Amino acid sequence: MPEGSRAIHMKNCILFLLATWPLAGLDLSRQSEYQLSRGYKVTIHGTMSIHDWVETVGEVNGDMIAGQRAGGGIDLTSIRIVMYVRSIRSDMGTVMDKKTYMALKADADPQITFLLDAPMTLLPSKGKEKPMALPGHLTLAGVTRPVALLVDYFDFSSDSMRFEGRQSIKMTEFGVKPPSTLFGTLNAGSDITIYFKTVFTILTK
Questions:
Q1: Mind listing the pLDDT tens digit for each residue in 138-176?
Q2: How many CA atoms lie within 13 A of 140 on its CB side?
Q3: DSSP letters along 86-124, please?
Q4: How many angstroms from the chain centroid is the CA of residue 121?
Q5: Which of 52, 66, 179, 183 shows the shortest CA–CA distance to 116?
Q6: Domain map (residue ranges) of the chain
Q7: pLDDT band of 72, cuts 50, 70, 90
Q8: What is the pLDDT of residues 79-132, one digit of tens each?
Q9: More reliable by pLDDT, 134 or 13
Q10: Domain 28-202 coded CATH 2.40.128.110
Q11: Distance, C-alpha 74 to centroid of its chain
């Protein structure tokens, strides 16, 4: 090959590599923004010296960035879930509510927040799989610790994604003293589980 032709050939090869190099290793699923829809259900379950207790989180918001794969599943880039402490209501009445707000330091830290640690791929559930773990960090009462959010059920359509799962934590690991009532005669255990049913709806396509 003549020297001039060889130089042109090499130049064309270099231009081709430069044009395609940024695509290497990237998933080309289109990323979209999602927002938590109304109709969610988030509850906190715990134990006490005489019986178990349940609290309902009335105000929750969240957002997510994800892309649906052509062959099924999604590439989950980020997810944020925020629960507002003072929206929590107990099945044991207002006395327990106030004890909960005090224990969770609602005045100084009014939110409980979960953030996904790193992007990951999820496949749709068929009802028999083991729970999928979403590694992230939970901030509770001003303390942030690593957790694994367990997703028991996951499904998606063209414009929404549905998650159902749970997160078990030990309150003392977040510096929280479990609440008590009736002058300390009824004491809550340190272990609690947060159950959630959420639907995220697409904002952009």
A1: 999 999 999 999 998 888 887 888 989 999 999 999 999
A2: 23
A3: GGEEETT-HHHHHHHHHHTTTTT--EEEEEE-S-EEE--
A4: 14
A5: 66
A6: 28-202
A7: confident
A8: 999 999 999 999 888 888 998 899 899 999 999 999 999 999 887 666 556 788
A9: 134
A10: yes
A11: 15
Sign of CA dihedral 85, 89, 91, 97: positive
Does the pLDDT at position 60 exceed 90?
A: yes
Contacts of 107 (CB under 8 A, 6+ apart): 101
- Can you tell me the distance from the alpha carbon of 63 to that of 34, in angstroms, rounded to the nearest whole number? 6
Q: Is the pTM of this model over 0.70?
A: yes
- Provide the CA 28 distance to its chain's centre, in angstroms: 23
Distance of CA 190 to the CA centre of its chain: 22
Unique residue bearing structure tokens 């003293």: 177
Q: Which amino acid is at 85?
A: V
- Closest alpha carbon to 128 in 163, 161, 162, 152: 152
Distance CA 55, CA 191 (A): 14
Q: Round to whole Å and give the CA distance between 178 and 84.
A: 18
pLDDT at 66 over 60: yes
Q: Which helix (H) or strand (E) holds 16?
A: helix 3-20
Collect contacts of 114-120 with beta carbons under 8 A, ≥24 apart. 114/79, 114/80, 114/81, 114/138, 114/139, 114/147, 114/149, 114/167, 115/78, 115/79, 115/80, 115/139, 116/76, 116/78, 116/79, 116/80, 117/146, 119/75, 119/76, 119/77, 119/78, 120/75, 120/76
